[in-house]
Specification:
This protein is mainly alpha-helical. It is built from twelve helices and no strands. Helices cover 68% and strands 0% of the residues. Helix 2 packs parallel to helix 6.
Length: 261
């Protein structure tokens, strides 16, 4: 899996440079991870034994995630003239070093997929017939996909209104979290421990690896920090006020702005 994803991310790096759009990195990663994790879910439990119902269910959940998110990202990147603010900021800050530095942004995403596979593999290999916990896992993923799609659609509608040019989107889900799409993306990875966790078997605690990795990536590394830096650079005090009112990640009731006397 690591070799496959390294090859995928090298292609992502080269294609992004050729198209002068780093946003393709995300599309390559999602689709590549979808293929790799689906294959991991269906990997035989024993030689000559066909995939079991839970393996097919896990493969279906991964495929659904990849098709929804990857399709959205690919359409967005292909249809927009402007580069994703995160990568545009990298391009501006790094200048001539952009190609080299982007390689070090792109390649670490390969081992990230390998870490995500722990959660998928453990859930797929949970013994027993399908039952309520499988339904819970499916429900979590469907809520996550629906919430992320709603957040994306709300942002799309906000940006499409000329009256909102240069303004901060703070309505709908974006009034409760500055990054509701990232929150729901993280939430979806809790579907796998919901299915695979068995406290009596210590190894199954590794089913939380995917959620932990995604939380770290989204809140500390490649998600919120560079995006908020770009938003502050473009919107200034309006975005700082938004930061003071609205939770960064977990949806919470917005704080009322303090009125000056």
């Amino acid at each position: 899996m690591l070799i496959l994803m390294t090859a995928v991310m090298l292609c992502a790096w080269g294609y992004g440079l050729a198209r002068r759009n780093g946003g393709w990195t995300d599309a390559f990663w999602v689709f590549g991870s979808g293929v790799a994790l689906t294959a991991a879910a269906l990997f035989p439990l024993h030689p000559h034994l066909p995939p079991q119902p839970r393996q097919w269910l896990m493969a279906g959940l991964v495929a659904l995630w990849a098709l929804r998110l990857g399709g959205y990202i690919a359409v967005r990147v292909a249809g927009h003239e402007h580069e994703d603010p995160r990568y545009a900021r990298f391009r501006a800050d790094w200048g001539r070093d952009y190609p080299r530095n982007m390689l070090f942004v792109t390649l670490p995403q390969a081992p990230a997929t390998a870490l995500l596979s722990f959660s998928v593999l453990i859930a797929a290999r949970t013994p027993g017939a399908l039952g309520p916990r499988d339904l819970l896992g499916v429900a979590i993923l469907l809520v996550a996909i629906g919430g992320e799609a709603l957040a994306d659609e709300q942002m799309k509608r906000f940006k499409a209104d000329p009256a909102h040019q240069g303004k901060v989107a703070d309505t709908g889900l974006w009034g409760w979290s500055r990054h509701p799409n990232y929150f729901f993306e993280w939430l979806g990875w809790l579907a796998y421990p919901a299915i695979g966790l068995n406290p009596a078997r210590p190894v199954t605690w590794l089913s939380f690896v995917a959620a932990a990795v995604m939380f770290l990536l989204l809140t500390r590394i490649s998600g919120i920090p560079p995006l908020e830096e770009a938003q502050l650079a473009s919107k200034g005090e309006a975005y700082r006020a938004y930061q003071r009112r609205v939770s960064a990640f977990f949806p919470l009731p917005p704080q009322q702005p303090v009125k000056s006397s």
